[in-house]
Design a protein that fits this description.
114 residues; alpha+beta; Bit1; four-stranded mixed sheet
């Protein structure tokens, strides 16, 4: 039984690669900082596995984050400030976990890798 973290990225925004990488990093770090230390330690001891997954739009992003919260998983939702690439604050991505693989997979296991 392993641990992982899932990061969900909106595909409708067509983010440049660098901007997407920064948003994913924000989500991953924020979720870890808000997670249970024991789970983070276990996850890190296994290598800190992450899966970056595609979601179609804001509605789908929020749906999966809400579902993960309902299942008791730690989440993060990232809103870009809108000072560079976007003209206004914009939800770009979110993270779930780290937590047990099967708990994460029960929410987003069917989504495609980025």
């Amino acid at each position: 039984m392993g641990y992982k973290q899932a990061i969900l990225v909106r595909m409708d925004l067509k983010l440049p690669r660098g901007k997407a990488c920064v948003q994913v990093a924000h989500a991953a770090v924020d979720a870890v900082l808000n997670s249970d230390k024991r789970k983070v330690d276990e996850w890190l001891s296994e290598g800190g596995k992450k899966a970056v997954l595609k979601v179609s739009d804001q509605k789908e992003l929020v749906k999966y984050i809400k579902l993960a919260k309902k299942k008791g998983l730690k989440t993060s939702l990232i809103k870009d400030a809108g000072k560079t690439f976007f003209k206004k604050p914009t939800l770009t991505c979110g993270a779930i976990g780290p937590d047990k693989d099967e708990k994460i997979d029960s929410v987003v296991g069917h989504l495609k890798l980025l």
